[in-house]
């Protein structure tokens, strides 16, 4: 990680809010927690630049406009947009010259925050998203501010819940999974059905794409957008679920189970199973039988 660096031009109004939190050991170990949270009314030449900070940052533009520089790209920030970034990476954001920039923001962290960030970046090549008019994001950040103004026994638990909801909204918005199931393209539905019902076959991405008359690239990208997993990973998940069923309720040898779920080499099956459950197939069977 690069050495930490922060440089700020604090051109925000006197009625702006900036609150710093010191999370408890419990919050750091078990929850998502606020590091700083605020509501700024900022004008040029306001800017913040930083690098090497162990924090994730959500910034929601309420009014006015700003600009973000992140990962060698520049983004205009307008009302209703949010950005989500990893503060270990260099970033620079600033108010534009055309008027005050009103922004709600929260620095957060937690034991699984990186997983949310990686899920977000897996779906969205841009750190900036436009949220709909019905987004709860601004209300959540305002609630975080209120909870840190009047701290009480359950503040950290309530904040963790709000942060979980905020992170979930970011990932689902990035993935486009706010659609109803009826919006899923027919070829994605067909691919899911093929995997669910023929998981023991030698299914490959190329074979599925050819069967469904779509490109390999489009199938992979669209499948992940709507299902949340790449087709190959979804196939592995389905196979592992059936393997668990055999291990729990049948007395088949591990090699036979591998063959029944479509995996030729028992050693490959054992490695896949252990990677996804933390146990070998026999250890999983033993643990289940001992209950």
Please render the helix and strand layout as text.
Blueprint (H helix, E strand, L loop, with lengths): L4 E5 L7 E4 L4 H6 L1 E11 L4 E5 L4 E8 L2 E5 L2 E5 L3 E6 L4 E5 L5 E10 L2 H11 L4 E3 L6 H13 L5 H21 L10 H13 L6 H8 L3 H12 L3 H19 L4 H7 L5 H12 L3 H9 L2
Antiparallel strand pairs: 1-4, 2-3, 3-10, 4-9, 5-8, 5-10, 6-7, 6-9, 8-11
What report would you give on this structure?
Residues 189-287 form the HTH araC/xylS-type domain. There is one protein chain. The chain has 291 residues and is an alpha+beta fold. It is built from eleven helices and eleven strands. The protein has two domains: 5-175, Regulatory protein AraC (Jelly Rolls), CATH 2.60.120; 182-289, Homeodomain-like (Arc Repressor Mutant, subunit A), CATH 1.10.10.60. Helix content is 45%, strand content 23%. The strands form two sheets. The protein has a six-stranded antiparallel β-sheet. A five-stranded antiparallel β-sheet has the order 1-4-9-6-7, with no helix packed on it. Helix 5 packs parallel to helix 8 (231-249). The chain is elongated, with a radius of gyration of 23 Å.
Oligomerization status of the protein chains: single chain
CATH class value of the largest domain: Mainly Beta
**What structural class should be given to the helix and strand makeup?**
alpha+beta
| N- to C-terminal distance | 44 Å
What is the tally of helical segments? Answer: 11
* Overall CATH architecture of the largest domain: Sandwich
Helix coverage percent: 40-55%
- Shape, principal axes of CA atoms: elongated
Computed Rg = 23 Å
Instruction: State the fourth-level CATH superfamily of the largest domain.
Output: Regulatory protein AraC
Tally of separate domains: 2
Strand tally is 11
Instruction: Enumerate the spans where pLDDT stays under 50 for 5 or more consecutive residues.
Output: none
CATH topology of the largest domain: Jelly Rolls
Strand content: 15-25%
Main β-sheet, spatial strand arrangement:
2-3-10-5-8-11
- What is the succession of H and E elements? EEHEEEEEEEEHEHHHHHHHHH
Give a short account of the largest sheet: 6 strands, antiparallel
Mean of residue pLDDT values: 91
Pfam families: AraC_binding (PF02311), HTH_18 (PF12833)
Domain HTH araC/xylS-type: 189-287
GO molecular function: DNA-binding transcription factor activity; sequence-specific DNA binding
Protein name: AraC family transcriptional regulator
């Amino acid at each position: 990680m690069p050495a930490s660096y922060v440089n700020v031009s604090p051109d925000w109004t006197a009625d702006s809010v900036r609150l710093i939190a010191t999370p408890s050991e419990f919050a750091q170990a078990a929850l998502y927690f606020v590091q700083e949270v605020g509501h700024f009314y900022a004008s040029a030449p306001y800017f913040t630049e930083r690098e090497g900070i162990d924090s994730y940052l959500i910034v929601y533009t309420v009014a006015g406009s700003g600009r973000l520089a992140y990962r060698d790209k520049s983004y205009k920030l307008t009302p209703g947009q949010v950005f989500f970034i990893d503060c270990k990476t260099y970033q620079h954001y600033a108010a534009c010259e055309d008027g005050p920039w009103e922004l709600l923001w929260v620095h957060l962290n937690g034991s699984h925050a990186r997983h949310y960030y990686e899920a977000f970046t897996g779906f969205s090549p841009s750190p900036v998203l436009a949220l709909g008019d019905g987004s709860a994001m601004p209300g959540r950040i305002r609630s975080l501010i209120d909870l840190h103004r009047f701290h009480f026994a359950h503040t950290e638990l309530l904040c963790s819940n709000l942060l979980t909801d905020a992170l979930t909204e970011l990932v689902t918005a990035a993935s486009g999974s706010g659609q109803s199931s009826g919006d899923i393209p027919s070829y994605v539905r067909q691919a899911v059905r093929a995997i669910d019902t023929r998981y023991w076959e030698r299914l490959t991405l190329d074979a599925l794409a050819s069967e469904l008359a779509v490109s390999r690239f489009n199938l992979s990208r669209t499948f992940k957008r709507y299902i949340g997993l790449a087709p190959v990973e979804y196939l592995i998940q389905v196979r592992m679920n059936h393997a668990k069923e055999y291990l729990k309720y049948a007395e088949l040898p591990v090699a036979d189970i591998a063959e029944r779920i479509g995996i030729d080499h028992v050693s490959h099956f054992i490695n896949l199973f252990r990677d996804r459950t933390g146990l070998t197939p026999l250890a999983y069977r033993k643990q289940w039988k001992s209950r």
